[in-house]
From TrEMBL:
PROSITE patterns: ADH_SHORT. InterPro entries: KR_dom, NAD(P)-bd_dom_sf, Sc_DH/Rdtase_CS, SDR_fam. Belongs to the short-chain dehydrogenases/reductases (SDR) family. This is Gluconate 5-dehydrogenase. PANTHER family: 3-OXOACYL-[ACYL-CARRIER-PROTEIN] REDUCTASE FABG, SHORT-CHAIN DEHYDROGENASES/REDUCTASES FAMILY MEMBER. One of its GO terms (molecular function) is oxidoreductase activity, acting on the CH-OH group of donors, NAD or NADP as acceptor. Coiled coil: none annotated. Residues 12-192 form the Ketoreductase domain. Signal peptide: none annotated. Gene3D superfamilies: NAD(P)-binding Rossmann-like Domain (3.40.50.720). Keywords: Oxidoreductase.
């Protein structure tokens, strides 16, 4: 097999949670371009359909499923449905996440629980559902962490805690699931042009202050996450598990 052939995902079934958002949609489109059949998952059918339409419009294979990743029954139904319609899941991208920007003293228990339930509990539920499926080959779980798991971010206590949990869970699952031929890695993005950091990027002084902290001095397009996702999903990373790739322009290298 050639080097480039190792990046192909032909015949594989991939589930991308949070598949209607900026990074989730870009991930789904990249996996589909590499040959995977992609199921995009989220809470808003309208945005999921838009992602599917872009993929199928480019001759890719995609479907969608409205799912609350923090709900155990919902996640179980999702994986049962995917297996019935397309076969067991080969690639899982745990991308669904929310943030709640607030001073730590103002964070409510309800806010804390909402962020942790989606960002961390959702990763646990979906990863467990994949691990419980019968599968004869190798599989890949890609957990989307964040630079906030490695550096302090003001007014993001719940989000930072949730992403720290995701990074730690990635290492634990990599050890435990290796015997089942499941690789588990994390991708930790920095600031991209998505809805989550949009308020910061909309203000010139805040944007300039952010750029001064990024060695590459730029904020990338969401599509730039695609190649790294394809690498982690494919046989090109066959000997990688338990690792976290920082895709942040050098932010966390300082």
């Amino acid at each position: 097999m050639s080097v480039l052939d190792q990046f192909r995902l032909d015949g594989r079934v991939a589930v991308v949670t949070g598949g209607g958002g900026g990074l989730g949609s870009a991930t789904a489109e990249a996996l589909a371009e590499a040959g995977a059949r992609v199921i995009v998952v989220g809470r808003s059918q309208d945005v999921l359909v838009k992602t599917v339409d872009r993929i199928t419009g480019a001759a890719g294979m995609a479907d969608h499923r409205v799912t609350d990743v923090s709900d155990e029954a919902d996640v179980g139904d999702l994986f049962d449905w995917v297996e019935h319609e397309y076969g067991p899941v080969d690639v899982l991208v745990n991308n669904a996440a929310v943030a709640d920007e607030a001073a730590f003293v103002d964070v409510t228990v309800a806010d804390w629980d909402r962020v942790l339930n989606i960002n961390a509990r959702g990763v646990f539920l979906a990863s467990r559902a994949l691990a419980r499926q019968e599968h004869s080959g190798t599989r890949s779980i890609i957990n989307v962490s964040s630079l906030a798991a490695s550096v302090g971010v003001k007014n993001q206590a719940a989000y930072s805690a949730s992403k720290g949990a995701v990074t730690s869970l990635t290492r634990a699952l990599a050890i435990e699931l290796a015997a089942s031929s499941i690789r588990v890695n994390a991708l930790a993005p920095g600031y991209f042009h998505t809805d989550m950091p949009a308020q910061v990027l909309a203000h010139e002084r805040a944007r300039d202050a952010l750029l001064r902290r990024i060695p590459q001095r730029r904020v990338p397009d969401p599509r730039e996450i695609g190649p790294s996702m394809v690498y982690l999903a494919s046989d090109a990373s066959a000997f990688m598990t338990g690792s976290t790739i920082h895709l942040d322009g050098g932010y966390t290298a300082q």
